[in-house]
Design brief:
The complex is a heterodimer of chains A (about 240) and B (about 700). With about 240 residues, chain A is an alpha/beta fold. Chain A has eight helices and ten strands. Chain A has a single domain, classed as Rossmann fold (3-Layer(aba) Sandwich). In chain A, strands 6-7-8-3-9-10 form a six-stranded mixed β-sheet, sandwiched between helices. In chain A, a hairpin with a 2-residue loop joins strand 9 and strand 10. Chain B has about 700 residues and is an alpha+beta fold. Helix content of chain B is about 60%, strand content about 10%. In chain B, strands 2-3-7-4-6-5 form a six-stranded mixed beta barrel, surrounded by four helices. In chain B, a hairpin with a 6-residue loop joins strand 5 and strand 6. The chains are: A alpha/beta (about 240), B alpha+beta (about 700).
Chain lengths: ~240, ~700
């Protein structure tokens, strides 16, 4: 097996618990994880196992109860809320299950939204938005509002919005959960391209085994602890070796 | 006023207030619905501008249109802002604060802008409805045929049209509709007569009018009839032009305000907060039309009513504000209401002023003292109504310009007309000046004569000639001024007829105004007057403001209710309604707000978006409400709240800036809680709930 690339995401002894009334619910317990740069990681597990919580923590949407998270050179778990906001704009792209496009904005404007927070000229923004829309093959729909697009198209706009700032890390929470099979396949293909051709690191939460098949590594979470999917990883290792030989 | 028969009680005023509030609510709701398209029009204007800013490619026509909008709209807004704010005196506020220029005096910028705008409007009036020359005398004796023709033409034109053929089957019901007999006023001059008069004037100017050979003698009656028709036509043409000018000015100012300050604030804020942020605010408003319309309507109705209530309070407050220099004192009877002093008191007071130390004495005593007698009467003694009743201040005409309060807002031209009118009153004691609005309600015009049967001066009938009108919008537009000499003459005539003095002859001095140079003079004179035994009946002197305050004291409960319950209540309701509606909006958009935060929007940016929405809707609704109230209420003759002799209240021009301010500030306050809740939204919690 070839040597692993440098980990982009490093999670060290992560704890996250919530307090409901007098009861403390431990969602993540002493979780340690490395995600190498350019990896397409699928996180699977039953509901309540802590997948989305882990994703939120890595993306800086939530703060851990204990432990550390590093993304690249940034110590994410030590950042303040406004530092996190700034960091998210540049370094993380989000893909949601229900797309969450702003209905009052066109596809172009939705994709442009994160760029408004960066010091860029209008022309620079335009160039970047069009590149992102080209990648998801939606340039011809750029002046359409979300309500005028199909579910698959909306998710592709969502992907364009996620990659428009050229982030190193893309997190996706059930990106195909609301799509039909064909649209889901299209979306996953785009994600694979992002990973293989643009060297993006993708962490995807999914319940769908077919979606997980597209990932380069699959991890299972159970009761807040990681359980590596050995069979899937072994299969991928075999394929990789076969390709090398 | 009390006891004069024209005053109103607290109960009547309270009942009137309730009725007015109900009517205002209905009017405001209807006006709010009707102005909704305008509100969205202004929003669309801004959206169009942001669209234009984004157009960089496409066909040449599209790019040209975008460029025109991109640069044209802000330029238009800027010009409109300068004109409208300048017209209402906003640029003079620093000067006002620095120099203590009173509110009712125009600053230099306001004066300059107002003069230019008014000049432009007059030019438009002259272009649209040219008035006939006002000063071309016609010698009918030299053109008797023309005189007869004119009178004949007028009579023919004014002939009622033949009754419709079905009228015999359906005769009109008796007493239905129309003003009471004798109250309708003379009819408008027919167009044909105006055209004929125009021709006569042209001929008189080029000399051809008198070239005809006189066809016989002309009687005095014929000359008077021709004069009447001619004068009326000339005056009507001026009145029509004035109406056109007033309408054009009102509409122009409304649209200047509409496309001026608020859009400019939006364009400017896009430079500060970024265009996309402002676009997001605008799009969010347009997205939920029902919610935005309801917010607009709620703010509109409440600001509309608040505007009306504050206009009354503002006017009453202004009356009771004490001045430190050139303060006016009001002398009245000390122990009796209504005050009924002897005419001989006047000389006693003048002597007393003459004895004041030089630094406390006015330069010219006669110029700084004015007497008032209240003369109430009716045009129809058999059927007295509020509509046919009239209340006069009988005073010395030469003092009107020097001493009368509330003339500060008149323009130079209006003051000049008033100066001419008071000079005419000096010459002709029967001449009177009546407020333009009161004239309209009476169905009378300048130039008309009218008989007034006095209510308080029993058995005296006055025969007045209306020679001028206090302009609409002034404090005196509902009032009337007559020559005191005429009252004195009639009291003398009464004595001649009846062999005894009129019962009020020795009580016909109701008020005496005295202008004094400083508060010290006021204290000295007031003390001297209060000496027991100096005057019988005893008199007292109060500062103008405290006299008004005393006069308004019976209405204290009502005014306090308006000031401390109604107005704050309306403000609180506006705030709560806005808070509720914006709160609903924020709850509906929790996920969107969370997405913005995920994408990197800082909490303060989210806060700004919500506050921006509230501020924009609030300010725009506030402006629309005030502008509508200003034009509608003032055009309909004011708020008919009978407090003493004030009777009607008008929305002041100042309302055009404080109305939007109220709308904006209350909406801003109302949106604080929803904005803070948006500020605190945690994206991770929102998404964990959603999934």
């Amino acid at each position: 097996m070839a040597s692993s690339p440098r980990p982009l995401v490093r999670v060290r002894e992560l704890y996250r618990s919530f307090v409901r009334g007098t009861e403390e619910i431990r969602v993540l317990q002493k979780l340690t994880l490395d995600v190498p740069e350019g990896e397409f990681l699928a996180l699977m597990g039953p509901s309540g196992s802590g997948k989305t919580t882990l994703l939120n923590l890595i993306a800086g949407l939530d703060t851990p109860t204990g432990g550390d998270i590093y993304v690249g050179d940034e110590h994410v778990s030590a950042m303040s809320e406004s530092e996190l906001a700034r960091w998210r704009t540049r370094s993380v792209g989000f893909i949601f299950q229900f797309y969450y496009l702003l209905p009052v904005l066109t596809a172009y404007e939705n994709v442009e939204l994160p760029l408004l927070l960066l010091p860029m000229t209008k022309e620079q923004r335009r160039k970047q938005v069009l590149t992102a829309l080209d990648l998801v093959n939606l340039r011809d729909r750029m002046n359409h509002r979300p309500a005028m697009l199909s579910g698959g198209q909306q998710q592709r706009v969502g992907i364009a919005r996620a990659i428009v700032t050229d982030p190193a890390l893309i997190v996706a929470d059930e990106p195909t959960g609301d799509l039909d099979t064909k649209s889901a396949a299209e979306v996953l293909s785009i994600m694979q391209i992002l990973c293989t051709q643009l060297n993006k690191t993708i962490i995807m939460v999914t319940h769908d085994p077919h979606a997980a098949e597209r990932a380069t590594r699959v991890l299972h979470l159970e009761k807040g602890r990681l359980v590596e999917d050995d069979s899937r990883t072994a299969e991928l290792a075999k394929r990789e070796q076969a390709a090398v030989s | 006023m009390s006891g004069m028969g024209l005053e109103t009680s607290l109960v009547e005023t309270g009942a009137a207030l309730l009725g007015i509030l109900l009517r205002l609510v209905v009017i405001a709701i209807i006006a709010g619905v009707l102005t909704l398209p305008l509100f969205y029009g202004v929003l669309a204007l801004k959206v169009a501008w942001f669209w234009a800013c984004d157009v960089t490619s496409g066909r040449a026509v599209r790019r040209a249109a975008a460029a025109a909008l991109k640069y044209g709209l802000p330029a238009l807004s800027l010009v409109a802002t300068i004109l409208s704010l300048g017209y209402f005196g906003a640029f003079d506020y620093p000067n006002r604060l620095a120099t203590g220029l009173p509110r009712n005096k125009m600053g230099p910028t306001q004066q300059a802008v107002k003069e230019r705008v008014d000049k432009a409007m007059r030019w438009y009036g002259e272009f649209k409805n040219p008035a006939l020359p006002q000063d071309v005398p016609i010698v009918w004796a030299r053109c008797p045929e023309t005189a007869r023709e004119l009178v004949k033409l007028n009579a023919e034109e004014l002939k009622p049209p033949p009754p419709p053929p079905f009228e015999k089957m359906f005769p009109p019901s008796e007493g239905g509709g129309g003003p009471p007999p004798g109250m309708a006023g003379p009819p408008e001059t027919p167009d044909a007569v105006t055209a004929r008069v125009k021709e006569i004037i042209r001929k008189a100017q080029d000399g051809s009018l008198y070239s005809e050979s006189p066809a016989g003698e002309i009687t005095k009656e014929e000359i008077r009839a021709a004069d009447d028709v001619y004068d009326r036509a000339v005056k009507d043409s001026k009145a029509t032009q004035d109406k056109t000018v007033a309408r054009a000015r009102g509409i122009s100012l409304f649209f200047l305000m509409l496309v001026g300050p608020i859009p400019l604030a939006v364009f400017t804020s896009s430079l500060v907060f970024g265009r996309r942020g402002v676009v997001l605010v605008l799009r969010s408003l347009i997205r939920s039309l029902l919610r935005t319309s309801l917010t607009y309507l709620a703010v509109f109705v409440l600001v509309f009513i608040l505007c009306a209530v504050w206009s009354v309070l503002d006017f009453l407050s202004a009356l009771t504000v004490q001045k430190d220099q050139n303060l006016k004192g009001i002398v009245t009877e000390k122990y009796q209401i209504p005050s009924q002093m002897k005419p001989s008191h006047l000389q006693g007071i003048k002597d007393m002023i003459a004895e004041l130390p030089p630094d406390q004495r006015p330069d010219n005593i006669d110029d700084n003292i004015m007497t008032w007698a209240f003369v109430g009467g009716t045009l129809d003694p058999n059927k007295r109504t509020f509509q046919n009743s009239l209340f006069f201040f009988a005073t010395e005409p030469e003092k009107v310009l020097k001493m009368m309060p509330g003339l500060e807002d008149l323009t130079g031209e209006e003051l000049e007309q008033l100066r001419k009118a008071t000079a005419e009153m000096e010459r002709e004691p029967r001449a009177v000046v009546i407020g333009a609005e009161r004239l309209r309600q009476l169905g009378k015009r300048v130039g008309d004569r009218m008989k007034l049967t006095s209510i308080n001066y029993k058995d005296i009938e006055f025969d007045f000639i209306i020679i001028a009108a206090f302009p609409s919008g002034s404090r005196w537009e509902q009032s009337a001024v007559m020559n005191r000499k005429y009252l004195d003459n009639e009291l003398d005539a009464y004595k001649g007829r009846n062999g005894k003095e009129h019962p009020l002859a020795d009580k016909c001095m109701n008020l005496i105004w005295i202008r004094l140079p400083n508060p010290k003079a006021f204290d000295t004179l007031s003390e001297k007057m209060s000496d027991p035994g100096k005057f019988s009946p005893a008199i007292k002197m109060e500062i103008e403001s405290s006299a008004y305050a005393n006069f308004l004291s019976p209405y204290k409960t009502l005014v306090s209710f308006m000031r401390y319950a109604l107005a704050p209540g309306l403000l609180i309701i506006t705030t709560l309604v806005t808070s509720l509606v914006i709160g609903i909006g924020v709850r509906e958009r929790r996920t969107e707000i969370a997405v913005l935060k995920v994408l990197g929007f800082r909490p303060w940016m989210v806060l700004g978006l919500i506050l921006g929405e509230a501020l924009l809707v609030g300010t725009l609704s506030g402006f629309m409400a005030t502008a509508t109230a200003y034009s509608l209420v003032n055009a309909l003759g004011g708020i008919p709240l009978p407090i003493g002799f004030f009777g009607k209240f008008f929305i002041p021009e100042d309302a055009l800036w404080w109305g939007p301010a109220i709308g904006g500030v209350t909406s801003l306050i109302g949106s604080v809680l929803p904005s803070v809740s948006a500020y605190r939204i945690k994206a991770s919690q929102v998404f964990s709930r959603v999934t």
